[in-house]
Design brief:
Largest sheet: 9 strands, mixed
Mean pLDDT: 93
Distance between the termini: 26 Å
Number of strands: 13
Oligomer: single chain
Shape: globular
Structural class: alpha/beta
Order of helices and strands: EEEHEHEEEEHEHEHHEEEHHH
Radius of gyration: 18 Å
Helix content: 25-40%
Low-confidence stretches: none
Strand order of the largest sheet: 5-4-1-8-9-10-11-12-13
Strand content: 15-25%
Length: 302
C-alpha cells in the first residue's frame, strides 16, 4: 500500500506562443484549461493508474474546489479517508506552457500548508507500506512523518520538488531520494556536501553514500540515473515524436516509481517503469490528464 502525504491543487493552464518575460503580458487566442493537480495528488493518481493501492493524506479547503478534489480521488480509486478540511482555501496553480512544452508555474498553496503529519496514524506503517512525500506542504510535517514511518519499517520516498532544504536527520530516514539535476546540486550545496565533481553521477553517489539511501536523479529526455551501494544505474527514456506538455512528467515518474517499488520490483525495474511513465506524460496537455495507465507502461516494458 502507498500513502501519499502532500499537495492537492486545481490547476489553471494556458498555452501561448512563448512564456512571458518580466513585466510582459502575453495574449493567447486559446482558452484556458481547468484541471486537477498538485504534486501529491498527481503522484497518487500516477501510482493508482499503475495498479497500486493508494491512500491520499493532506488538506483541502471547505469550498467547491475541495469537493472537486475529493470527487477526483474517488474516481481514480484512491482512498481519501485521511483527507481533512483546512481553514484556508483549496490550493490553486497557474501554469503557462509554450509551443515547445516548457512551462512556468505559480502555486497559491492555501490549505496545502495546513496538512499535518498526525493525519496519518502509526498503525498504517509497516514493511508493506510505502510513504511518498514531496515539498509542497510544510517541510517540518514531512520530517515528522518520515521519522515515524521509518521507525515502523515502512519504505520511504522523498521527491525534493520544488527544491528546498532537507535536514540531515530527515535524509537519514529516506530509502529513495528523487530529484532532478538542479535540485541535486542545490541540495548538496545546502547541506555542505562536497563532491569530487558537479556531475550528476557524483552528486548521486555522494548523497547515496553519506545517507545510506538510493539517490535517483531525473535527466529529462535523457532518462534517469540512480546511485546505490556505490554503483550507478542508468535508464534511458523512450523517445517521443512530439512533446506537448512536460508539466506532469516528474510526478508521473515518481508515482510509477513508487508503484513499482511497492510491488517489489528491483531498483532497475522501477526506474524503467518510471522513465516510461515520465515520457508518456508529455504527450498530452495538463498534469493528471496526461498520466498513463499500467497497460500503457507495460507495452513499452517489453
Amino acid at each position: 500500500m502507498i500513502i501519499v502525504f502532500g499537495s492537492m491543487n486545481i490547476d489553471f493552464l494556458a498555452r501561448s506562443a512563448h512564456l512571458p518575460q518580466e513585466g510582459e503580458t502575453v495574449i493567447t487566442p486559446e482558452d484556458y484549461v481547468e484541471a486537477p493537480g498538485g504534486k501529491g495528488m498527481n503522484q497518487a493518481v500516477a501510482a493508482a493508474r499503475a495498479g497500486a493501492t493508494v491512500k491520499m493524506a493532506g488538506k483541502v479547503g471547505q469550498d467547491a474546489f475541495g469537493e472537486k478534489v475529493r470527487r477526483i480521488l474517488k474516481e481514480e480509486g484512491i482512498d481519501a479517508s485521511l483527507l481533512q478540511a483546512g481553514t484556508k482555501k483549496t490550493a490553486l496553480a497557474f501554469i503557462f506552457v509554450d509551443q515547445k512544452g516548457a512551462n512556468q508555474i505559480v502555486v497559491a498553496s492555501g490549505a496545502n500548508m495546513e496538512a499535518r503529519a498526525e493525519q496519518v496514524p502509526d498503525d498504517l506503517f509497516n514493511d508493506k507500506t510505502t510513504l511518498v512525500l514531496q515539498m509542497e506542504v510544510t517541510p517540518a510535517e514531512n520530517w515528522k512523518l518520515l521519522a515515524r514511518a521509518k521507525q515502523r519499517g515502512a519504505r520511504t520516498i522523498l521527491n525534493v520538488a520544488p527544491a528546498g532544504h532537507v535536514p540531515e536527520e530527515a535524509l537519514e530516514n529516506i530509502d529513495y531520494l528523487i530529484l532532478n539535476e538542479i535540485e541535486a546540486k542545490q541540495l548538496c550545496d545546502k547541506i555542505g556536501l562536497k563532491t569530487a565533481s558537479q556531475s550528476e553521477d557524483q552528486l548521486a553517489l555522494s548523497l547515496s553514500a553519506k545517507y545510506n539511501l538510493a539517490c535517483i536523479v531525473t535527466l529529462g529526455k535523457n532518462g534517469a540515473l540512480a546511485a546505490e551501494n556505490g554503483k550507478i544505474i542508468k535508464v534511458p527514456s523512450p523517445s517521443l515524436d512530439k512533446v506537448v506538455d512536460t508539466t506532469g512528467a516528474g510526478d508521473s515518474f515518481c508515482g510509477n516509481f513508487a508503484a513499482a517499488v511497492d510491488a517489489g520490483d528491483t531498483l532497475h525495474e522501477a526506474m524503467k517503469s518510471a522513465c516510461i511513465g515520465g515520457s508518456l506524460a508529455c504527450r498530452k496537455i495538463g498534469a493528471q490528464s496526461s498520466l498513463p495507465y499500467r497497460k500503457d507502461i507495460k507495452k513499452l516494458m517489453m
